[in-house]
Amino acid sequence: MLELKNVTAKFGNYAAIRDVNLRIKEGEIVVLLGANGAGKTTTFRTISGLHSRSSGQIMFEGLEISRIPANKIVELGIAHCAEDRKLFPDMTVQENLNLGGFVHRKRKQQKKETMQKVYDLFPVLYNKRNDLAGSLSGGQQQMLAIGRALMARPKLMLLDEPSIGLAPLIVEQMFKSIQQINKEGTTVLLAEQNANAALSIANRGYVYENGKIVVEGSAEELFANEEVRKAYIGA
Ligand code: ATP
């Protein structure tokens, strides 16, 4: 579904990611692991057209998307849920969701159905649909950010650190919801510091170090890998 071939992306002369090769098959949950600053966010921003790659190729469903602008990439079916959530705090939950559905502005019925799916997935958002986004708890804001990305009816969802700053119980719920989203047909690429939880729902993963992929494998292989355990899982 998605393939990165030798992708390098820079800030000035500094290569934040170097020669990255990634493959995501339809239906998978794939996790990117790595310390802060290892290059996960830059990878996401490069895929979604928010940062231009300096070399390499990005293919999505057989189409080269390396030079396609971000708004078109959403239309092709890739939604990006950024680490800082980027909600509109002074707008209501429902208004924030509506903005995520702009891609389908001409298809009212479809938008309504998708919103209902988001509310089924996160019932608390339905209860708070008229509340301001800024009044929600951290976990609810993360649900809203994911819900808003789902409004674009993506085939592939890029989720950047969805568990960051959330209490352990909420993290567990969040990962269950991600599994549910995947079961309902959305392929997921997930960046996480919480390697244990992420690998428990993922099919495969890639480990980043200083902008390069240093290890890749199935979730089981990464769990069993001594270096990965030491660096990202503990015990
Ligand atoms: P985090 O979890 O902290 O977001 P990450 O693995 O997603 O980490 P990136 O945010 O992709 O890492 O950062 C990769 C490298 O690029 C880091 O060395 C970072 O300092 C650098 N970098 C990121 N954004 C910028 C920027 N706007 N200008 C210059 N350098 C940047």
Automatic annotation (TrEMBL):
Q: Which InterPro entries match?
A: AAA+_ATPase, ABC_transporter-like_ATP-bd, ABC_transporter-like_CS, BCAA_Transport_ATP-bd_LivF, P-loop_NTPase
Report the CDD domains cross-referenced here: ABC_TM1139_LivF_branched
SUPFAM superfamilies, alphabetically? Answer: P-loop containing nucleoside triphosphate hydrolases
Tell me where in this chain the ABC transporter domain is found: 2-235
Molecular function (Gene Ontology), one example: ATP binding
Top-rank taxon of the source lineage equals: Bacteria
Q: What keyword terms does UniProt attach to this protein?
A: Amino-acid transport, ATP-binding, Nucleotide-binding, Transport
Q: Which family is annotated?
A: Belongs to the ABC transporter superfamily.
- For this entry, the protein name equals ABC transporter ATP-binding protein
The organism named in the record is Pallidibacillus thermolactis
